[in-house]
Amino acid sequence: MEVSQVEKLPPPPGVINSIKAGFDTIATHITTILLPLLLNLFLWLGPRLRLNVFLDPIKDFAVQTWRSGGVPADDVQRVLTWYNDTIPNINLFWLLHTAPIGISSLLFPQVTSSTPLGDPAILQVTALSLFGWVFLLTLIGWVGGGLYFRSVAWIAIEGKDDQRMSISRAVIQTMLVSIIWIILLLVIGFPVFLVLGLVLQIIPFIGNLLVLVVSLVSMWVIVPLFFWPHGVFLRKQNALTSIISSVQMTRFTLPTSSMFVLAAFLLTFGLNYLWTIPPEDSWMTFVGIFGHSFVATALLAGSFIYYRDMNNWLQTVIDKMRPNSVIK
């Protein structure tokens, strides 16, 4: 390809400009943050759904078995300390936030703490109701996540598409993407983390090297997965076609796309520490909830804008290069 033709190529979309466009879009359509705002308010002021009644008998049986089997008392105590510090702070209503398509929410650190309205109601799952609760909350999360992504995508492209995706299609594709996501986690993610955990326990030095290698390689996986839902809601693709188009986009734009994903994660997780500074029994927590809902929705809108502009840029580059070369 000649140098003059390279100079005529338009610059790719900027990461900062896309994020800024997302914030500007949500600032002018503030009602878009309603779903994450309501979910965060429910997780903050609403009841807690806990596992104590279901897991306590299992814990007692396990402790008796370990003691009779000669497990050192210090090891048993460490497990009990972890159990007492972790299990009471699990709120199954967190399942309303599904991945990779879901309503953004804060994970409040202390489920057992009080709220400005007093102590929250405590609900308990049992062995009979656990499956029903998990299924119901996951289903609600899928429906809410599909509606949330659909509305943000429509706002981000300013209704320039010929027709908005139907609600039924948005929900169905959300379910398909989530199911495939779960399968990938079980088939690929679980064995990888299991092997890393075993190697770290046996040979820590080799385990740390493997963690470094996996961290570097993971960018080739995380970035396509991050933009996986975007083809569904912007280009009306199905779950399988969308992941293929996401891989194709990131194949040519990995450095820039990685910077966008990294910036979005740093802003999200960094600001989450700020949003959770006020105690949960203070009304100042509402400021954090509002800030989180706004920023998370703005970053989502910015990702839709980036995805649209980057695909348009790639198509322009391909059209300009087609007479002289073929991208393989």
Brief synopsis:
With 328 residues, the chain is mainly α. It has helices at 3-8, 15-28, 34-45, 52-68, 73-86, 130-156, 167-202, 204-226, 228-234, 239-275, 285-321, and strands at 48-50, 122-124. α3 (34-45) packs antiparallel against α11 (285-321) and α7 (167-202) packs antiparallel against α9.
In terms of structural class, how would the helical and strand content be classed? mainly alpha
Following the backbone from N to C, one meets helices and strands in this order, namely HHHEHHEHHHHHH
Helix content: over 70%
Outline the biggest β-sheet.
Answer: 2 strands, parallel
Low-confidence spans: pLDDT under 50, at least 5 residues?
Answer: none
Count of DSSP-assigned helices: 11
Distance between the termini: 15 Å
Structure summary, number of beta strands: 2
Shape: globular
Give the neighbour order of strands across the main sheet: 1-2
Determine the oligomeric state from the structure. Answer: single chain
Radius of gyration: 23 Å
Beta-strand portion reads: under 5%
Describe the structure.
The protein has 328 residues and is mainly alpha-helical. It has a domain at 3-48 and 142-321. Helix content is 70%, strand content 2%. The protein has helices spanning 3-8, 15-28, 34-45, 52-68, 73-86, 130-156, 167-202, 204-226, 228-234, 239-275, 285-321; strands spanning 48-50, 122-124. Strands 1-2 form a two-stranded parallel ribbon. Helix 2 (15-28) packs across helix 11 (285-321) and helix 7 (167-202) runs antiparallel to helix 8 (204-226). The longest helix is centred in the C-terminal third of the chain and has 37 residues, at 239-275. It is globular and about 75 Å long.
